[in-house]
Amino acid sequence: MNPRIKQHPLIPPDATTAIECDFPILEISQLAERESWRKEINRPIYHIHKWWATRLGTVFRAITLAALSRPGTNIWNNFYESHQFTNKVVLDPFMGSGTTLGEAVKLGAKAIGCDINPISTFLVRQAFTRVPETELRAAFTRLEQKVAPDIRHYYQTRDPHTGELIPVLYFFWVKTVVTPTLETIPLFSRYVFSQNAYPKKKPKAQIICPNCWSVIENRYDTTNLICPHCQHSFNPQKGPASGQYITAQDGTRYRIKDLLPSNGNPPVNRLYAIMALRRNGEKVYLPVREEDLSLYTEAEARLKSETLPLPTLKIRDGYNTNQARSYNYTYWRDFFNSRQLLCLGLLLRSILEIEDQAIQEQMLCLFSSTLEFNSLFCSFKGEGTGAVRHTFSNHILKPERTPLENSVWGTDKSSGTFSSLFESRLMRAKRYLDYPFEIKRNFTVKQKASQKPVASQSINVQKVKTWEQFDNRENSLMVINGDSSYLPLPAKSVDAVVTDPPYFDFIHYSELSDFFFAWLSPVLKDRYPEFAKPNSSNQGEVQDKSPLIFARQLASVFSQCSRVLKDDGVLVFSFHHSKVEGWAAICEAITIAGMLVVATHPVYSEFRTGTSKTAAKSRICLDAILVCKKYSSFNIRLDQQTLISKTETLAKQLEEGGISISEADRFVILASQMLIPLSQQKRDFNFVCNTLQQIHQVAQKSWNSKVAS
Predict the structure, then answer these.
(1) Rounded CA gap, 220 and 203, in Å?
(2) Residue 597 — φ and ψ, nearest 5°?
(3) What is the mean pLDDT of residues 530-534?
(4) Residue 667 — φ and ψ, nearest 5°?
(5) According to DSSP H, which parts of 235-375 are helical?
(6) Which tens digits make up the pLDDT trace of 238-294?
(7) Coil, helix or strand for 45?
(8) C-alpha pair distances (Å), 442 with each of 30, 42, 450, 502
(9) Which percentage of the chain shows pLDDT scores above 90?
(10) What is the pTM assigned to this prediction?
(11) How many CB atoms lie within 10 A of CB 231?
C-alpha cells in the first residue's frame, strides 16, 4: 500500500477506491494551473463551443482515474500511463462541455452524460463526432468560395496611401445618448481607445479627437493633447462618461439611463475608427470616412431585402439578462448591428445548404461559436493580446459602451472569426480525437513549454441513445438531454459519478445560452425535440439564488445518482463557495440524497466566474473535490483545532509548491473538511451554517495571528 495513505488522518477503513484515500493535490494543481493558461489549446475538445465554468481536463482525468482505481494506487505515478477500464461506467449528470466524458473514455471507460440544456447536448455531440478532416476542409472551401466574398465586401475600407480597397479587421463603435438640450454625447470614459497590453513597455496608443473625430497616435498616458487636424486641446484620459453618469459641455451631469431612447430601442452607436490590414500585413488605424458609412448603409438596405434565418427570440427577464434589458435590449437580434445580422445570416443560410448532416452540424457548431466574438457586446482588449473581448466577459451581459465589430469571416490576422475559429477551435478539436495528449512539465527545473505526451488511445466512441445499446457495445457514449432527476438508467449500473454541479447564486446557464439558442433553435427544432421549445430553459434546472431551494434541486439529482450508483461506487464532484450558505446547501443536498462525504481534496481550478471572482475581496482559486458514498462505517468527530490544523497543512503543501493561496481558499479547504463529520451527523441546514461560521471565525483569528507574526 502507498505509505502516504497510512499517514492520512481521515482515511475511511472501508475504502473501495483510491480517491477515498489520497489524491496528488500538489502535482495536479501545478499541472492544472499550466493548463488553465490556454485551456482551449491544452484541451481543445471541450472548447469547440462556449460553455460556462468548463472544468480543467487535467483535474478530471486525475479524479476519474482515482475514482476507478483500487485503494493504494499511486495516482500521480499512473497519471501518464495508458489505461483500459473496460466495462467501467462513468456518469456525469451535469455534463456541460463534456469534460468528464472525454476523460473517462480516454481511460478506456464507457461514459454517460446528461444535461438539461440543449446547447450543452448539441456541442458535446459535435465534439465527439468523428468526421474526416478532408471533408470538413472541402466544406469550408465551398463556403469560402460561395459566401466569403459577399461577407468580405462589407468589411473593407480604402487605404488613404494607395487608394486600394483593403480588408477591415475591426470597426470601433461608441454608444451615444442625447440630452434634453439635444446635445449628442458619446459614452467614452477616456479617448484612448487602443493601447498595448503592456503599455509601460510599449506606450504607443490610439486616441480619438472628441472635436473632429480624427485618429491620433500618441502615448497611452498623455494628459494634454492638441489635435494635429483641428487644433482642439483636450485631456485624452477624461471622457464625458464616468460610472453611471455623463457630463455635457455646459457641465450638467445626467444619469445615462435617464437618457436612453424613449422609443424603447437600445442606445444608438456611432462608428468612429477602423483597424485595417494592408497588403504587406501592416495593421493600420484609420478614421471613418463617407465611403465607410455608405458601405454600412448598403448593408442595412440589403438586410431589409433578404430572407435570412435570423433570430426572433425575446430576451427573458433574469439575473444575467436584466442589465441588457434595462438598456432596451429586448430581442437577441438587438445584440447585433445590421451589418452583423446580414453577414451572419448569409453565412448561416449557406451552411444550411450543406447536404451532409454531420458536416452541416459541425459547421453549425462553428457558426454558433463565432457568435460569441461577433456581437455588440464585444469590446477591444488592445494590442499585444487576443484582440476581442467576447460577449460573455461579463456574465450579467453588461451593455458595452464602446463595442467592437469583428469581421465575421475574417482574415489570416483575425481572431474570433468564422475562418480563424475553424482552425483554432474546430480543427484542433477534431485532431485531438486522434491524438488525445496530456500536458507535462518537469517541475524541478524552469521550463516554459509543456510537453504533450499521448497517454490514451484515440477517442473513437460509439454514440448510442438507449441503455440497451450502451450496455451491449464497447466504447459506447450516451449523451442525454433531460432532467438528471429522472435518469433512464437501471439501478446500480454506474461505477462512478464524476461531475461539477452548477454554481447556485451567480450564473444562470439557460439565461445566457439563449444567446445561441435564438439562432440554433429555428434550424434544429425539427431534428431535436430539445430545440422545439420557446427557449433553452427547463423546469428541472438546478439553479436558484436561495440556498435551500438549490439544495433540494441538487438533492433530487444526487438521489438519482445514488440509485444508479453501485454500492461500492463513489460520487465525486468539485465545488467552491465563499459563503457558509453555499457549503450548507451542498451538505443538505448530500444528506437528503442519503449519502456521506468520506474524503475531500483541494485542487487548483480555473477562474470560474469573471464577475464574482474579480469582485471578491479574496479570490478563490481552489476547488474542493468532494468524495461521497452511499454507505460507510467511517464515523468521525473532529474538534475544531484538528480541522484548522488540517487546513493549514493542506494550504502549506500547495503554497510550498508554488500555488498562491488566499484566505478565501483556506475557507474552501476548511469548509470541505468540515463536511466529512457534518454529513455523517446529518445535521440540518441552519446547524451546518452556524457551525461553519463559528469554526471559520476561530480559524480566521489563527490565520491572522500567523500573518501578523
Answers:
(1) 6
(2) -85, 125
(3) 96
(4) -65, -40
(5) 290-305, 322-326, 338-351, 357-371
(6) 999 999 999 999 999 999 999 999 999 999 999 999 999 999 999 999 999 999 999
(7) helix
(8) 10, 17, 9, 34
(9) 80
(10) 0.94
(11) 10
